[in-house]
């Protein structure tokens, strides 16, 4: 993965629901903060209000540059952020899984440089997820309607 080409704003198109990510109009913006560290800015609308969180991501093993660890809180361990597929200009497919004691959690996001993605791209990304064991029927669409998301764009 070429980090510099990945930098910039991505719109969340679809995700596996998870306990920590509620809201609509979600975006993620990536930038270089220091050598080897990627800054992460996640924004969303939650109950009509702008909600944002910053974090950082680092490549764990230079031999696998598409596998990053992302952290948002110093007190919590970093989580996996694996880019399974990207063309840098249109889509990105991100996967991660974590074990918390007895609990196993999977995280998946389909991201786009635009608020929508063509159906054929979605089908290709769903096929990749299915091949790694993700139940794509559990994924939910993220509202990226321009009028609805307007408060986020001010």
List the helices and strands and how they pair.
Layout: H1 3-6, E1 8-15, E2 24-34, E3 37-46, E4 49-59, E5 67-71, E6 79-86, E7 91-100, E8 103-112, H2 119-131, E9 140-141
Antiparallel strand pairs: 1-2, 1-8, 1-9, 2-3, 3-4, 4-5, 5-6, 6-7, 7-8
Folded structure, characterized:
The protein has 154 residues and is mainly β. It is 11% helix and 49% strand. An eight-stranded antiparallel β-barrel has the order 1-2-3-4-5-6-7-8. A hairpin with a 2-residue loop joins strand 2 and strand 3 (37-46). The protein is globular, with a radius of gyration of 15 Å.
Q: Characteristics of this structure?
A:
single chain, about 150 residues, mainly beta, eight-stranded antiparallel beta barrel, about 50% strand
Mean pLDDT: 88
Quantity of strands, as a count: 9
* Sheet of most strands: 8 strands, antiparallel, barrel
Shape: globular
In percent terms, what proportion of residues is strand? over 45%
* Count of runs of 4 or more consecutive helical residues: 2
Order of helices and strands: HEEEEEEEEHE
Q: What class would the helix/strand composition place it in?
A: mainly beta
Low-confidence stretches: none
Helix content: 10-25%
Terminal Cα span: 31 Å
Write out the strand line-up for the largest beta sheet, numbering strands in chain order. Answer: 1-2-3-4-5-6-7-8
Radius of gyration: 15 Å
């Amino acid at each position: 993965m070429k980090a510099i080409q990945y930098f910039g704003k991505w719109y969340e198109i679809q995700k596996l629901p998870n306990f920590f990510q509620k809201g609509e109009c979600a975006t993620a913006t990536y930038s270089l903060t220091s050598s080897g560290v990627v800054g992460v800015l996640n924004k969303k609308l939650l109950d009509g209000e702008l909600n944002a969180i910053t974090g950082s991501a680092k490549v764990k093993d230079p031999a696998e540059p598409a596998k990053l660890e992302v952290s948002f809180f110093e007190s919590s361990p970093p989580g996996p952020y694996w880019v399974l597929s990207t063309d840098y200009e249109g889509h990105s497919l991100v996967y991660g899984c974590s074990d918390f004691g007895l609990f196993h959690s999977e995280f998946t996001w389909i991201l786009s440089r635009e608020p929508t993605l063509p159906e054929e791209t979605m089908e290709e990304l769903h096929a990749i997820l299915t091949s790694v064991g993700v139940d794509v029927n559990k994924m939910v669409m993220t509202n990226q309607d321009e009028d609805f998301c307007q408060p986020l764009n001010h």
